[in-house]
Write a structure and sequence with these properties.
Layout (H helix, E strand, L loop, with lengths): L2 H38 L5 H29 L8 H16 L2 E6 L9 H22 L3 E8 L4 E8 L14 H12 L3 E6 L5 E8 L13 E2 L1
Helix pairs in contact: 1-2, 1-5, 3-4, 4-5
Length: about 220
């Protein structure tokens, strides 16, 4: 294959990936969020909730297949095998830019490998939570924890010692919170925000454990 042909093929793949992301993936993400909002209004209607859960699972399946295709078309390597290292670098850069003390703990039971789409969405949730700490919290310190929440679920937590935030559900969410909520919905999980005025804020994202294989090793418990 000539250099010109290779460059053309690369450009076509990049264009296709961008179009699929902008036109299809974003629509599927919106559908997931709308279904989640619909579920909230169906309290006590078990048959409806089960049907919506099935629709969400199917939509996530298609979305995950699309994201896997994005990686292939763009020639990108996922961060599933280096997730902890990537988060450690993110936290170090956060400290350098803000002078806010930042610590990472990886608790026993956190897997050594995650599927690329799981790793990317979890990473972005942490990134967005740290951005909120930087812009709004007035915090002196922040702690990021990667932990096993239950036998079937993992959790990432970003907790600061800042001024806290208004958790009144009647108020519109900021773009950062909306982005985190969308990503945790994509993962089939739950986002919990706990904040009291003057006592800091905790962002906890809980999502199903989604390993590369059942043979994945666990990361040793560390704190930094």
């Amino acid at each position: 294959m000539s250099v010109r042909q290779a460059a053309l093929e690369h450009d076509i793949k990049q264009l296709l990936a961008r179009e699929l992301h902008d036109r299809v993936a974003q629509t599927l993400t919106s559908m997931l969020v709308e279904l989640e909002n619909f579920k909230a209004s169906q309290v006590g209607r078990k048959s409806v909730l089960l049907e919506v859960d099935g629709l969400q699972d199917s939509t996530r399946g298609v979305l995950n297949e699309l994201r896997a295709l994005f990686y292939e078309l763009r020639g990108e390597e996922g961060i599933g095998d280096s997730f902890v290292d990537k988060v450690r670098v993110l936290i170090a850069r956060f400290h350098e830019k803000t002078s806010i003390e930042a610590h990472l703990s990886v608790q026993r039971g956190w897997p050594a490998s995650l599927r690329p789409q799981t790793a990317l969405n979890a990473y972005r949730i942490i990134e967005e939570a740290l951005a909120n700490v930087r812009m709004h919290s007035g915090a002196n310190a922040v702690r990021v924890a990667l932990k096993r929440y239950s036998f079937s679920h993992l959790a990432v937590q970003v907790k600061d010692d800042g001024r806290g935030l208004d958790t009144d559900e009647s108020r519109p969410l900021g773009l950062g919170m909306v982005g985190m909520r969308e990503r945790v919905v994509i993962l089939g999980g739950e986002l919990r925000i706990d904040s009291n005025g003057g006592h800091g804020t905790s962002v906890l994202a809980i999502f199903p454990k989604d390993l590369i294989s059942s043979q994945d090793l666990l990361v040793p418990e560390v704190s930094a």
